[in-house]
Design a protein that fits this description.
The protein is an all-alpha fold. The chain has helices spanning 9-16, 24-33, 38-57, 67-79, 87-100, 115-130, 135-152, 165-176, 181-200, 229-237, 244-259, 263-268, 297-310, 334-347, 357-369, 374-381, 386-389, 397-403; strands at 274-275, 280-284, 290-294. The longest helix has 20 residues, at 38-57.
Length: 414
């Protein structure tokens, strides 16, 4: 494999003679499968040989490599002014390769048997198994709960039944002033979930979740930010469909604008979720719920073009992959929002809201303007509660005019 990346055979032979030489063919194969270019692979091989030279000087065997040794190597190179972009990532990728091959032992996870760790592990298991919450939701709840346990229960060492409503209120009030209302509401939801868990498990005699105050935020107080239908068409036309990235972004924007997908649902879309014969797309929505949506003709055309022509080869089953190596699925829903924001700039649009949810609101708004009922909108957007769809009633201006009371004037006043 090494010979495929060097014109001079002696260069590959020199690489094989270093301390890591017998493992570099497999490393090359991994890099090629991740989509790295030839020049990048040669650079990463140079980093590996530099690591091998340092290991010889430090009298280390391959089996001695771990994260601590990696930091020592990087520190030594920094002192000599020889660290460059990608050094750390390359060495960690090589270490991961050696561990997967069984050459370097996988570190044994330290068992944290502290009271807080045990309590949080039980709560996390409750969220995952009994509440069936998404991993992202669990990860969002735990920092708030950990802070509460640390501050009010002495890291879990204090008795759980010693917790009082005043402790909960003091914890919340100390933090809520530094938060926007949405974030404060999320913190309250996390704490209610945890306190309800303690009550159901018999750890507390009363349900302290009732002591969590609500954060005031008026429902339906604003109109959903949206784009008019003509601006949505303008946004879609702004994608450069002559490039692979442009065709990928066009397919992403169509899923948002035509089917009303959330950013997280676009990220989670798997190759097995696209059913071509049935003309359906399976969407992995909130609460681990899966919904089936029709594959509209323009959506199907954009998806098939991207998958046949532009999607990089690799082991990932995600539909949308990063254009640059390593070719993996999008790491976070914010990537989808970034695609929307860049498309807005290209289209010359500057709405107040620039995230992926803008197109979901725009779809609902267009449906309202075309006479769709709230039930139909809720079905398309896959809302679990009709209350979630109520806000779009404020956009039905023609119906609102029919029920609006006349504004009093000075002439009619008595």
């Amino acid at each position: 494999m090494l010979e495929d990346f060097f014109i001079v055979p002696a260069a590959a032979q020199r690489l094989r003679s270093c301390a890591l030489g017998v493992h570099l063919d497999g490393f090359c194969t991994q890099l090629a499968n991740l989509g790295y270019r030839r020049a990048t692979i040669r650079y990463k091989l140079w980093v590996a040989t530099d690591l091998a030279r340092w290991m010889v000087g430090a009298h280390l065997a391959v089996v001695d490599l771990d994260e601590r040794r990696v930091e020592e190597f990087l520190s030594a190179r920094r002192r000599r002014g020889r660290t460059y972009r990608g050094f750390r990532g390359t060495v960690l990728l090589l270490l991961d390769r050696l561990r997967s091959a069984g050459v370097v032992p996988t570190p044994v996870a330290t068992c944290d048997d502290s009271p807080m760790a045990i309590l949080l592990a039980r709560y996390e298991e409750h969220l995952r198994r009994e509440r069936a919450l998404a991993e992202s939701t669990i990860a969002g709840y735990l920092p708030f709960v950990r802070a509460c346990v640390t501050e009010r229960l002495d890291g879990g060492a204090a008795r759980l039944d010693s917790l009082r409503p005043g402790d909960i209120r003091d914890f919340l009030l100390a933090r809520v002033r530094r938060m926007v209302p949405k974030r404060a509401q999320y913190m309250g939801t996390a704490l209610r979930s945890f306190l309800r868990f303690l009550f159901l498990r018999g750890e507390t005699g009363t349900d302290l979740s009732l002591a969590v105050p609500t954060v005031r935020q008026w429902r339906l107080s604003s109109v959903p930010r949206h784009l008019p239908a003509r601006d949505v068409r303008r946004l879609l036309r702004a994608c450069d469909r002559s490039s692979a990235t442009g065709r990928r972004d066009h397919a992403v924007l169509l899923l948002l604008a035509r089917l009303g997908l959330r950013a997280s649902e676009v990220v989670a879309l798997d190759l097995d979720d696209v059913h071509w014969r049935e003309g359906e797309i399976v969407v992995r929505g909130k609460g681990l719920v899966r919904d089936r949506l029709p594959m509209l003709p323009d959506v199907g055309k954009a998806l098939s073009l991207y998958l046949r022509k532009d999607r990089p080869a690799g082991g990932s089953r995600r539909v949308f992959l990063c254009g640059r190596a390593p070719h993996r699925g999008f790491a976070h829903p914010s990537t989808v929002s970034t695609i929307v924001a860049r498309a807005l700039v290209r289209a010359g649009l500057a709405p107040a809201m620039r995230g992926a949810h803008l197109l979901r609101h725009s779809l609902a708004t267009t449906m309202v303007r075309r006479g769709a009922s709230l039930a139909e909108i809720g079905q398309v957007l896959r809302h679990r509660s009709p209350n979630t769809t109520e806000i779009y009633a404020k956009l039905d201006f023609s119906s609102l005019r029919d029920v609006a009371m006349p504004w009093p004037t000075s002439r009619g006043a008595r």
